[in-house]
Amino acid sequence: MLRVVIVVAVIVVFVYGLVDVIRTDPRETKGISKPAWIVVQIVLPVIGAILWFLIGRPRGTSPARPAYSHPIAPDDDPDFLRNLELRRRKQAEADRLKKLKDELDAKERKADDAKGTHDPRGSESGEASGSGDAQGTDEVK
After folding, report:
1. How many Cα atoms occupy the beta-carbon half-sphere of 105 within 13 Å?
2. pLDDT tens digit string along 50-103?
C-alpha cells in the first residue's frame, strides 16, 4: 500500500510540476529557459519538479487575470479601431479625389468657354433682351 502511495505521489508531483512549467510565461522563468525546465522535468521527474518549485518558478506574481477572447467595448478592440482608421482614410482620399475632379471639370468648362463662340450665360440673347428692356424703360420716362 505504501508503494502505491509513493508512486501516486511521484506521478502527481511530476504532472503538476510539468503542467506548471508549461503554463508559465517563458519570460517569467528563473534560472534556465522554459524548454530547459521541461527537459529537466522529464529527465528527473521528482528532482526536476522540486527544483522547479524552489528555483525556477516565478514568485510574488499575482494570479493571472482571465484572458477574454474578445474586447469588452468596440473602442478597446484594436481590429475595430484599425478598420475605423482605414475607413476614415479612404473617405478622406475619396473626398480629396472628388474635389480634384470637380476642380478639373471646372477648369475644362472654363477652357471650353474661352474657346467657344458664344458665352454659356446666353449673352447673345441676354444682351438683346436686356438692352431692349433698358431702352423701353428709358422711353417710358
Report:
1. 6
2. 888 888 887 765 555 556 566 567 677 777 788 888 899 999 999 999 999 999
Q: For the whole model, what pTM was predicted?
A: 0.41
Angle separating helix axes 34-43 and 2-23, nearest 10 degrees: 170
- 60 in the Ramachandran plot: left (φ > 0), alpha (ψ -120 to 50) or beta? left
Task: Indicate the SS3 state at residue 47.
Answer: helix
Cell 516565478 found at:
58
* DSSP letter (8 states) at residue 121: T
Give the Cα separation of 91 and 14 in Å (integer): 59
User: Within 13 Å and on the Cβ side, how many CA atoms surround 70?
Assistant: 4
Burial of 52 (0-12, 13-18, 19+ CB in 10 A): buried
Three-class SS of residue 117? coil
Predicted local confidence at residue 128, as pLDDT:
47
